[in-house]
């Protein structure tokens, strides 16, 4: 991801990271051990560490050439997955023959933009979500500002919104206001509508920046990654609303609509189909129940609102999340109920542990380290860093519990859940499992960015933490 001019810096960063990790293994076990001890034992001086941190903070995670490729590739990748899953059932030969030998060839990937029913669905869906966001009761959740700072507070009602909109959809289908499989039948058109809405929204946002004085977008890099952390429209945080209400809400409605479609076409509900629907709905409910975990995540605190975030939330994530359900519903041969039950149990267990591990660290930071982890006093490092205003701040790096086994346990458990989702569909061809492949690659790239950001932010303290917690994703393997 780096340009040719940045290879020397990348090599220096890798060497520094290895030295920092290897030299601090003999540190005393105190949770508040200072990084200066490790610096005296390391061949890297304090000045070297600060120089590396400053260079990394100036360094962009990807080059402009890579950004141009991503801007061009991301829409076609999303549409390819959508077309392969919903038109060709993920079959390799049929997908390629359709794209290579049928007119208009590659343009067949484009979703229908003039599906009037899809536009009506999207309009009603967004209107109802905005209404529920305003009228439903809200819970107050704590947002950690730093390891030693006082938390801020936000009000959320994502779980209530999801439950109400799902019940409203079922009620409308039961009263025969519309076909119960409406969302499933017009899903490709819905994705096309959301694509157009996302591009139009970005255009309006950047037009506002152009005529305003607060922000400006001048490069392709700023267009892709964004320049504003938390833009608001009508006092609504756009970034979180897209993922919590639109992506996850559409995910829930598609799952319910798919179950209706399966029942209407087969006249029975196959046990594997029912288990797939239950597993996905459980995943969605857990996501919304732990909305405060996501509000405390890196995406909300670090990632700006740009083309990447808009496209992921409105297009690619809905396609990836719904792909396993679509494969199972379209398949005429399902896996045996016993295997479906085992994979469903794996989804439930891994999803539960995803949020148990995430909440373990969140509670630890909310209590500023004054809490038991696994019944014992936790091991942690107080890592100092330079805040945006120039003041010195500190964060607590937890090295106990799940966070003592690997540095990214939430990613590990979430990947296990999505692997189980993919296996629930059996072997539907390589393209049928392409969403899982895309998700694995995304997490690996994200881990690399997270590690680089932490090294730039915490310096020697991060090397000390890596010496304590040696594995990133899978204990004993990676």
UniProtKB/TrEMBL annotation:
One biological process term in Gene Ontology = cholesterol biosynthetic process
Q: Which domain of life is it from?
A: Eukaryota
Name the InterPro entries for this protein: ERG24_DHCR-like (IPR001171)
The record's Gene Ontology cellular component field reads: endoplasmic reticulum membrane
Task: Write out the entry's keywords from A to Z.
Answer: Cholesterol biosynthesis, Cholesterol metabolism, Lipid biosynthesis, Lipid metabolism, Membrane, NADP, Oxidoreductase, Steroid biosynthesis, Steroid metabolism, Sterol biosynthesis, Sterol metabolism, Transmembrane, Transmembrane helix
Which molecular-function annotation in GO is an example for this chain?
7-dehydrocholesterol reductase activity
What's the catalysed reaction? cholesterol + NADP(+) = 7-dehydrocholesterol + NADPH + H(+); 7-dehydrodesmosterol + NADPH + H(+) = desmosterol + NADP(+)
Q: Which family does it belong to?
A: Belongs to the ERG4/ERG24 family.
Under the heading PANTHER family, the entry gives: 7-DEHYDROCHOLESTEROL REDUCTASE, DELTA(14)-STEROL REDUCTASE
Entry protein name: 7-dehydrocholesterol reductase
């Amino acid at each position: 991801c780096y340009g040719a001019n940045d290879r020397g810096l990348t090599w220096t960063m890798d060497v520094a990271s290895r030295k920092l990790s290897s030299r601090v293994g003999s540190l005393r076990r105190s949770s508040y051990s200072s990084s200066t001890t490790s610096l005296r034992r390391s061949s890297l001086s304090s000045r070297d560490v600060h120089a590396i941190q400053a260079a990394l903070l100036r360094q962009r995670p990807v080059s402009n050439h890579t950004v141009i490729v991503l801007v061009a590739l991301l829409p076609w990748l999303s549409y390819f997955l959508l077309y392969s899953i919903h038109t060709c059932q993920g079959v390799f030969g049929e997908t390629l023959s359709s794209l290579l030998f049928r007119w208009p060839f590659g343009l067949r990937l484009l979703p229908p933009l003039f599906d009037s029913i899809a536009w009506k669905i999207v309009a009603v869906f967004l209107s109802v979500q905005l209404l529920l966001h305003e009228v439903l009761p809200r819970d107050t959740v704590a947002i950690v500002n730093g390891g030693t700072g006082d938390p801020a507070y936000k009000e959320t009602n994502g779980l209530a919104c999801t439950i109400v909109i799902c019940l409203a959809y079922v009620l409308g289908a039961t009263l025969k206001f519309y076909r119960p499989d409406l969302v499933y039948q017009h899903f490709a058109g819905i994705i096309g509508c959301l694509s157009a809405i996302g591009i139009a929204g970005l255009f309006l946002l950047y037009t506002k920046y152009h005529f305003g004085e607060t922000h400006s977008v001048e490069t392709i890099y700023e267009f892709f990654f964004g320049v504003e952390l938390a833009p608001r429209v009508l006092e609504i945080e756009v970034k979180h609303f897209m993922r919590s209400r639109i992506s996850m809400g559409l995910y829930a409605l598609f799952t319910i609509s798919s179950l209706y479609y399966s029942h209407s076409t087969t006249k029975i509900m196959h046990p594997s189909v029912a288990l797939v629907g239950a597993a996905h709905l459980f995943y969605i409910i857990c996501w919304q129940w732990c909305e405060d975990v996501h509000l405390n995540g890196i995406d909300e605190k670090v990632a700006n609102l740009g083309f990447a975030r808009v496209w992921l939330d409105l297009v690619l994530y809905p396609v990836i999340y719904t792909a396993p359900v679509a494969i199972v519903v379209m398949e005429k041969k399902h896996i045996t109920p016993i295997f479906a039950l085992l994979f469903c149990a794996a989804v439930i267990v891994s999803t539960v542990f995803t949020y148990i591990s995430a909440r373990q660290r969140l509670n630890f930071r909310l209590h500023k380290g004054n809490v038991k982890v696994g019944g014992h006093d936790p091991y942690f490092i107080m890592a100092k860093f330079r805040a945006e205003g120039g003041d010195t701040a500190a964060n607590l790096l937890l090295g106990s519990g799940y966070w003592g086994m690997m540095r990214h346990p939430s990613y590990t458990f979430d990947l296990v859940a999505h692997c189980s989702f993919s296996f629930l569909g059996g072997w539907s061809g390589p393209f049928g499992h392409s969403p899982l492949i895309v998700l694995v690659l995304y997490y690996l790239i994200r881990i690399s960015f997270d590690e680089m950001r932490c090294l730039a932010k915490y310096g020697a303290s991060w090397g000390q933490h890596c010496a304590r917690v040696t594995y990133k994703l899978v204990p004993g393997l990676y």
